[in-house]
Amino acid sequence: MRTVHRLPRILAITVPLAAIVATSACGTSASDETSPTSTPVATAAAPAPIDGADGVVSQNRLGIGTAQAAAQAAVAKCQADGLGFVTVSVVDRAGNVQAMLRGDNAAQHTVEAARQKAYTAAAFGANTSDLSERAKGDGATVADLPGTLFLAGGVSVKSAGGSIAGIGVGGAPDGMRDQACAAAGLDAIAGTLG
Fold this sequence. Notes:
Layout: H1 9-26, H2 30-34, H3 64-80, E1 87-92, E2 97-102, H4 109-124, H5 128-131, E3 154-159, E4 162-170, H6 175-189
Antiparallel strand pairs: 1-2, 1-4, 3-4
Helix pairs in contact: 3-6
């Protein structure tokens, strides 16, 4: 037995009718073009490429040696402060990990926390301790954005006035101690940034 699926009669009539009404309401006729009450419809022209004829956009990011130096300096600061159980993550602006160091006895959750803090700082161009107020409130907030973590411990790396990376540290008993380690990583590479 074959089942025939049909649109309900009301849809079979109203959908084509709505299309005709919409077309006639949006269309123009020869008499409309000369009518003083008609409103011209603007047409969008393609924007001219600003990055060159090939349309390629350049992106600044840390070199691998610089990212590694930042991570090592951050871990060294944490170890000097008796916090060898942290993870440091250096990410580009898109959140791609460029360098990561996991300290001795660092718990598994510190890996993701460090990456998320680094990404949040890079994406928003600010230290995560400065962003934590944005994450508070009733209803939806920026804290609902996937992959972000609005806890102290992430610092933004800037070059030529824009955020190009983030350094995140996770695992210290206090977020501001995480952030002090991340700041030490930034200080170590500050002279190499444009």
